[in-house]
Specification:
The chain is mostly helical. About 85% of the residues lie in helices and about 0% in strands. The protein contains 4 helices and no strands.
Length: about 110
């Protein structure tokens, strides 16, 4: 019985760790995405820092990436940037890979 409880606790700990890791990677991805969008909009360094934080915050509105995509598409369209939803989704995928790579290199 103790072995089962130990294994169960171990699985719960691993699950919590995995969830925390994915959260950190998503936040890093959103900062990278915000930096990319800020560059397209021609924001200053201070505005870029604030915008990256706003993109991270946008991800808390609903589950999934649609809230972030919607924010970026709206902001970029309002700034007369010629960027489609498909462009944003492709950049999101690129930033996801880069964020994971950065996170893994930071952990080592």
């Amino acid at each position: 019985m103790t072995d089962f409880k130990d294994r169960e606790r171990g699985e719960e700990t691993k699950y919590a760790f995995d969830q925390e890791t994915e959260f950190k990677i998503a936040a890093r991805r959103n900062r990278l995405l915000g930096e990319w969008a800020a560059g397209l909009m021609g924001l200053t360094e201070e505005e870029t820092d604030a915008y990256k934080k706003a993109v991270v915050q946008a991800d808390f509105e609903e589950a999934g990436d649609e809230d972030v995509i919607r924010k970026l598409l709206g902001d970029l369209t309002a700034s007369d940037c010629d960027v489609s939803e498909a462009d944003i989704r492709a950049k999101l995928d690129e930033c996801q890979i880069e964020a994971r790579r950065q996170y893994m290199s930071d952990e080592n």
